[in-house]
Amino acid sequence: MLDITITETRDFVKKLLMENTFDHFLTMEAFVRSGITYSFDGRINKDFYDKEELEAMASTSYTTWENLRTHVYNVIRGKKLPLSFKIVLVLAQPDIMDMLEKNHLTIPVSDVANLTLNIYYDGMSIQLTSMATQNIFTMDKTLELVWDAEIREFLKKAGIYFTDN
Q1: pLDDT digits (tens, 9 = 90+) for 118-147
Q2: Which of 6, 21, 69, 97 is the Cys-Cys partner for 15 at CB 3.0 to 4.6 Å?
Q3: pLDDT class for 60, splitting at 50, 70, 90?
Q4: Contacts 24+ apart (CB under 8 A), 34-40
Q5: Segments in 3-141 forming alpha helices (H)
Q6: What are the start-end ranges of the H helices in the chain?
Q7: pTM of model > 0.85
Q8: Taking the domains of the chain in order of start, what are their residue ranges?
């Protein structure tokens, strides 16, 4: 499990909320605590969409960060910083398949439940944690180690600086 602190908060928030850096991720949920608490459930309400719209989506389980980013930004922006926020992002199925293939992992994609990136701002700093969950019990930590390495590589390519906790 990755546990890091972002060293340049302002730049990270800009990349998270105002740029497309994280747009390829799916959003499980997001919470913003300010004057009131805002809660965003990233689960897609399939009954709202027609067949063609569903087929065009990256996932029929969760919406992309790209679709939710503006809403979260509108809640966070203002004169005062929020007391806290938490955003739970997951990797989309095609990206999981690409990662498994790129790293020569023989784990069936159907055995991967989620590859998660948790972003938490506590009013002072931003912490990122990761989690790799599988649909089967295994003592093998290879998937977790590869996912952590992928996140580190992603952050470095995006010019996001961090320290390990």
Answers
A1: 999 999 999 999 999 999 999 999 999 999
A2: 21
A3: confident
A4: 34/75, 34/76, 34/78, 34/80, 34/82, 34/83, 38/75, 40/68, 40/71, 40/72
A5: 9-17, 51-56, 65-76, 93-102
A6: 9-17, 51-56, 65-76, 93-102, 142-157
A7: yes
A8: 3-164
